[in-house]
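>> Question from a student workshop board

For tomorrow's exercise we were told to take the sequence and the ligand below, predict the bound structure, and bring the output to class. My setup keeps failing. Could a helper post the expected result so I can at least see what it should look like? The ligand is thiamine diphosphate.
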Amino acid sequence: MATQTAAKPAKANILQAINAAIADAMEADDNVVVLGEDVADPEEGGVCGVTKGLSSRFGDARVRSTPISEQAIVGAAIGASLVGFKPVAEIMLMNFTTVAMDMIVNHAAKLRFMSGGQTHVPIVIRTMTGTGFASGGQHCDYLEAWFAHTAGIKVVAPSSPRDAYGLMRSAIDDPDPVLFIENLPTYWTPAEAPEKDHRVPIGKANLLSEGNDVTIIAYARMIQEAMPAVAQLAEAGISAELIDLRTIAPWDRDTVLASVAKTGRAMIVHEAVTPFGVGAEIASVLNEELFGKLKAPVKRLGGAFCAVPFSKPLETAFAPQTADIAAAAKALMA
Amino acid sequence: MTNRAVPDAGTQIEIYRRMALIKANDERSRKVIMTGRLVMPYYSPRGQEVIPSAISVNLTDEDYVCTIYRGSHDQLAKGLPLKDLWAEVAGRTTGTCKGKGGPMHVTYPTKGIMVTTGIVGSTMPIANGLAWASQLRGDGRVTVANFGDGAANIGAFHESLNLASVWKLPVIFVCQNNEWGEHTAYDKTSNVRVADRAAAYGIPGERVDGNDPFAMYAAAREAIERARAGEGPTLIEAMTYRFHGHVFGDQDAYMDKERKARAMADDPVPRFRARLIADGVASEEQLAEMEAGIEAQIDEAVEFALASDFPGVEELKRDVFAEELN
Ligand SMILES: Cc1ncc(C[n+]2csc(CCOP(=O)(O)OP(=O)(O)O)c2C)c(N)n1
Ligand SMILES: [Mg+2]
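>> Workshop helper replied:
Here is what the output should look like for this input. Compare the format with yours to find the bug.
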């Protein structure tokens, strides 16, 4: 696309990008297999259709719908990966990872270490989540901190179709388990389409806008809330730098530290509840590394510390919004 | 059942060799801990020797096995070298896992020992994945998932048997029913025999005397042949008895003394030994020589392990991911 300067850039949404990434990986490597509830075409390629078309194209053996058995899904992915397969397992919603935590935390994340490197678990666990669709307390939590707190598993959360494609390809290539978090409410937002075989390295953040006064670190849907905030801040004469973390574990310390060393002010924004979250970890590292250079205490903006509420005004208020981000940045400047 | 497979004389001797190895290794393990030469969590498999010995003579190195913390019998029967085992349980760099796994996580892919887990019930979901890989490749391998009677009450058991049935996976679920889950007797936790649960998943289930090498051999062989032929999984409930407390140091006051005495008086290892001699399959001298050889190998393995180096602290940063942590 980059060479066709005259043509309008092609558009795609995140759902299509993930579908294309898995298809291209399956095309490139017979060892890539897909499993999960409803993932095959007779079951419509998943509740949102992310894996639609894959079983028709690559066969029922490589794309298998499963019983509603999250431990069995992750276990089967782990077992097949131990002997050379590269399974992409879907755990439909992130809250459902909680019933497969033993497989993910005690096994997928630890088998390489506990076996002294004799075995490893190259699986991708895809999972959808995110507030905004009125799904209440058990269907849209962001639990990334639980996994980031576990040694041996990588965690990514793309915010654009290009990153979704590139990170999925990298996740499938990766020799270790990767939890791939998909924001469900923004699946269908069109943006620049990814190029085939493009990779986004795991562990590399994306500098979305440059600024000198304050660094805003966010990921997943919070990028969509932060972008307009950056524009509003510019109007108010505040130059904000926006970093899309993209990978939560291992996060890109170099990019974040360089930015905050420059701006002296930082804010981390996520949809997950604030206490003990990713923001707390990043704030702590900024404090350790940049104490003395900080012009203001590092700010965390996260979800309210409650179950995600159903009622629309409450759900909207639960997660950080553009106005909250802009206001918090202004407060940091005060 | 009539016309069941019978191990030939050579196979009977091989089953006995594996049983004798497991028994001798267990006795040495307890002695080494008792004398303070080694500190480790130790879950004795004593009393359960027949099960993996009679199963594993029907397997090759290419077949996979998953086992649990109480797993040294399964590992040794599958061919884990003694030196690698001892160095691992001693936490040395020469161990199978460089000392990073320990007794509860012994792994040795060379002999198909893919996972040893400390989490009750967790062999089964992963065994399915190994079996799925064999099914996808059509490589004819089978996977054996070992677990205890207690593990039959964990959700993973249900999820795994169901999936294996629906996908017709080449996996054999081996429940080693030793009548105890930690301090709780099996009959207090289940109203249904484990083997009978197979019916719920539409797969064959058999309750077998896990201390009888002939019965165990036949049940395992049939299940393995079915799996290799693409006919799907089998659940075997192998009845046995745990001779010691749950973990080394457990005084087992909760175990019925008479029941235990009866089980120990009917020790399957000397029982099979006597049978081999009575049937003229092996001579006393032959078996005595075999046992002496095993003792010598264990001597060598223990000394090798205790003389080996501990891993360096740089290992904390290795094997977390493919790339070393910085
Ligand atoms: C999920 C889980 N729950 C509890 C424990 C603690 N625990 C370890 S062994 C054990 C008993 C298991 O009994 P059984 O499955 O019969 O195996 P056995 O020890 O008799 O071989 C328990 C409760 C555990 N390791 N994992
Ligand atoms: Mg038991």
